[in-house]
Amino acid sequence: MAFLVAKKIKxxxxxxxxxxxxxxxxxSAGPVVVTQVKTKEKDGYEAFQVGYDNTAKHLTKxxxxxxxxxxxxxxxxxxxxxxxxxxxxxxxxxxxxxxxxDTVRITGTEKGRGFQGVVKRHGFHGGxxxxxxxxxxxxxxxxxxxxxxxxxxxxxxxxRMGGETVTIxxxxxxxxxxxxxLLFLKGSIPGSNKKSLxxxxx
Length: 202
Prior knowledge:
The protein has helices at residues 40-43, 61-67, 118-122; strands spanning 3-15, 21-29, 32-38, 47-52, 75-80, 92-93, 103-109, 112-116, 159-162, 165-177, 182-186, 197-201. By secondary structure, the protein is mainly beta. The protein folds into two domains: 3-112 and 164-201, Beta Barrel (Elongation Factor Tu (Ef-tu), domain 3), CATH 2.40.30.10; 113-162, no CATH class. The longest helix has 7 residues, at 61-67.
């Protein structure tokens, strides 16, 4: 098992052995350094904390003391431990831990799409175009029955769309570039290019 923190670079395409075009997302993945090993006895659960992007200029005293001589990381993230995983503080994980044909689990934050109506946000079909309708073609219609006289919690309505954490499972690894720390995953994944952080776990 292995895990990485990555940034989206772009979408591209590669050609398979049979000549078929495969759409891929290119990620700048790792390397990450294990900064803490959490145990059930001390922390109540088992996990590994890793640091990514060793370019931070300033750290608070508490974070600097926590990291000690491991580096000045901009990003600290945790991954739950699987049964047979064994990492120690200071271990480095790179894209070489992955291979073409592996499947990974991706967690990222999808793009924010601002305030949207119910047709775009929830897939409502809208009201009829005739029979007295006017300026209500994309409205949500009735908010509920005559009682209770309030909007029940969870009602699908207009509001902010996107910006939520999304997890996608069983994403195939198409290729890796160990020299440039690049990971090529099949298809699209949540997030915007050159900004979004993505958590990858085999």
